[in-house]
Amino acid sequence: MSKIVLEHIDKYYGSNHVLRDINLTIEDGDFMTLLGPSGCGKTTTLRVISGLEKPQNGRMTMDGRPIINAEESFFEAPSKRGLNLVFQSYALWPHMTVYNNVAFGLKIKHMPKKELTDCVTNALRVMRIEEYKDRYPNELSGGQQQRVAIARAIATSPKLLLLDEPLSNLDARLRIDMRAELKRLHKETGTTIIYVTHDQVEALTMSTQIALFKEGEISQLDTPLGIYTNPIDLQAADFIGNPRINFVNGTALYDGGELHVKSSLGEYHFPQKDIKLDEECPLNEAFDCVLGIRPETIEISLENEGHKNTVSASVYASQPAGSETLITLTVGDAELLAIQIGLKEYDVNQAVFAVLHPGRMNVYNKATTRLIKYAHTTQP
Ligand SMILES: Nc1ncnc2c1ncn2[C@@H]1O[C@H](COP(=O)(O)OP(=O)(O)O)[C@@H](O)[C@H]1O
Ligand SMILES: [Mg+2]
Q: Of 200, 234, 268, which residue is a domain's last?
């Protein structure tokens, strides 16, 4: 069991308020990713959880057991928290072989020889470093050393594994393999993992939950699909997804139970059930809005097949890349990036038709940048 609850955590470095009222519940067995751009407080949060930093305010419990109570100056010692931490800058013991680096934590626990060998061998296998087991850290590349650091952390089967950008030194191909291994590891061991990254692909591919950070606050907490489909503000929408979401300016009016949006793509009438009717959505007065349209929701056809919401478009440029093709379209004075599976050939300035799906669009209030119209994951 390993359920972590953080309540009202504030952390200051001098006058720099780097964590602002962090509230986060990490359920037993979660793969929770703290995601956000550099400097937003992800590492600091991990250091607070591990006990390397003391917050000025707030509480933390593990399985109901008090770990931090800043108001009462209570901070449980890091060594008692039963967790294991791998940093972006990992420190291996230079005088020990890879095998001994990984075995070290188990030897301290006086694990029987046979069991120890099995645990170490398994960790080396998962991280694909068995062949380096007799080498010393200075005989390894940065990426290999990073894998040893992860192997060392998982060998002890911690209840809670904290990983801070552990794949940052790996090349693109190895990173994909390691994402798969970490995901399997999580599934097989059921260990609760808290994972820090600025890489939205890592977050989307591995997590069960994502906490999206923005300047020391958690701006959104949801599943990868939830965050991808409905990013809570324009900044989140821009950050999540590659290639990035399209933004198209428009004017909105909520009236008669519908949100009417006019833009260079035409006019849409979004049903009330998809609208979040709160202070973000002015009632009965027109306001500036931004449509968010994911590249994969745009279909391109050469003929007008008479679908609703078909618009005439012109190909500005196309980028065939083998497995997929990126097509930049001009529609009125809007530019839209579309993605199609496979190799597609289009000429520059070729006239085509784009089929858009309003059910899959997001609408944001331009002034407040907040989401007001929710998208569906599939075409309703
Ligand atoms: N030891 C420290 N002393 C002073 N400021 C720090 C320290 N560690 C981090 N910070 C500051 O706290 C903020 C958050 O940092 P950090 O948690 O490392 O961000 P992230 O991991 O999201 O990139 C940054 O502005 C950073 O400069
Ligand atoms: Mg960091």
A: 234
